[in-house]
């Protein structure tokens, strides 16, 4: 949560209403103050503090566009105001525009460098950007400025829990709760540690207390996460019916919070329809002829690998296996193709004729890609670079045109396990995460991406190799040797120590805990949930058969 608005100067609201707002703020009743601020605005008032309060209320309700509009009005009245800028940064982060948010919060920090809440927001933004070291440094800076800032301590506890350091995680979570017994991130960090230790009952008790505390419970993203973890705690106890019902509650809470900003609407197709639009264009276009190898790009990797498939299919495992080898740089789920997307893919999925793109534009897009890779992953010049993003199947038409010599690894896992796993995970808000918030839509989304991926493999000049999760966990060495041969890597026993690589790299996908523990066999999880999965099974049946998981 961003810093709550506080009054900075008198406002021309009615005296009695303003006095009520000031009393509410003084007593910590921010919700009451925000409601009164909206009343004042409706009556013609319009000072920055009132606008900031009203924006906070809309932000809490998930109306980020409305909050942003009010904050821009406030900024027009007080240009450069660091509190208003920080509020805008928080809203941008929640809108999924973390890069823009970082620029804005750094302006606030440059103006008031010793204000702890600004550093806390900077940590949240770096978390969203998956810049873990920068997030940790920002939280630590916030705590150095305000040792009683419980959310910063809680976020450090959460980072430790996700890094597989239960001792540090528990110590910092308890310290955060000593500062604020209702701190939700600290409670979730402790529950995460308990679930990984297979103590589902302790996590369940802790999470129920958080959700039901004083009849109010937690709201927003904190509620979604707590419900998701509660489902996991129930799953640990083999209470599958209760677990699935709780994950369903979590997904409904996600929908309730993000309906305004993520649900399909005029001008915003669903993520599934976006994928289908690209598939229709690939289907309608003649097969792409193999383009000539592109000219060298300064800073490019010697060997370029795209690792894709579908979320929860095993991409994180394979990425860390490959990252264990000398001379390999791997990047975890970053939008390296953002520049090409911005030029070549419209919001509805419409693309230009890729064969007709002129050489200068292609060269500029390749250079932009490698600059982005260098900024995110460091120097890859002359090395093997693994670009891991499960959703890059959507980008295969662009990959075929921009990087015709790239090697493509396609993960395959039982569709039933994949869909169940996607439904039970608390993903970062996005239009794809919206698809995962309803079981049958998850299955339809899977069908759409598999259809596009297979079309691209049939009609585009792509060098592909399938990696089956079931074979990886049952015949690890043979499967990895085949992958290494395809990529052009020599076998190394370091592949066998991928769990150490994961621990050192700080994996942050939903598979982090499993990968850090070594080779985890997650096959057949769906069988325990066969009854609630029943509505999705007819949609998945063709892919279960096609991929050979029906035996």
Give a written overview of the molecule.
By secondary structure, the protein is mostly helical. It has a domain at 271-286 and 295-546: P-loop containing nucleotide triphosphate hydrolases (Rossmann fold). It has 28 helices and 5 strands. It has helices at residues 15-26, 30-42, 48-60, 64-77, 82-94, 98-111, 116-128, 132-145, 150-162, 166-179, 184-196, 200-212, 220-236, 240-262, 271-284, 315-323, 338-344, 359-377, 396-402, 415-423, 431-435, 439-459, 469-474, 476-487, 498-505, 512-516, 530-533, 537-546, and strands at residues 303-308, 328-332, 384-388, 407-412, 463-468. Strands 2-3-1-4-5 form a 5-stranded parallel sheet, with helices on both faces. The longest helix is centred in the middle third of the chain and has 23 residues, at 240-262. The radius of gyration is 24 Å and the shape is globular. The model is unreliable at 8-13 (pLDDT under 50).
In brief, what are we looking at here?
Helix 1 runs antiparallel to helix 2 and helix 11 runs parallel beside helix 13. The radius of gyration is 24 Å and the shape is globular.
Task: Detail the topology: elements first, then pairings.
Layout: H1 15-26, H2 30-42, H3 48-60, H4 64-77, H5 82-94, H6 98-111, H7 116-128, H8 132-145, H9 150-162, H10 166-179, H11 184-196, H12 200-212, H13 220-236, H14 240-262, H15 271-284, E1 303-308, H16 315-323, E2 328-332, H17 338-344, H18 359-377, E3 384-388, H19 396-402, E4 407-412, H20 415-423, H21 431-435, H22 439-459, E5 463-468, H23 469-474, H24 476-487, H25 498-505, H26 512-516, H27 530-533, H28 537-546
Helix pairs in contact: 1-2, 2-3, 3-4, 4-5, 5-6, 5-7, 6-7, 7-8, 8-9, 9-10, 9-11, 10-11, 11-12, 11-13, 12-13, 13-14, 15-22, 16-25, 20-22, 22-28
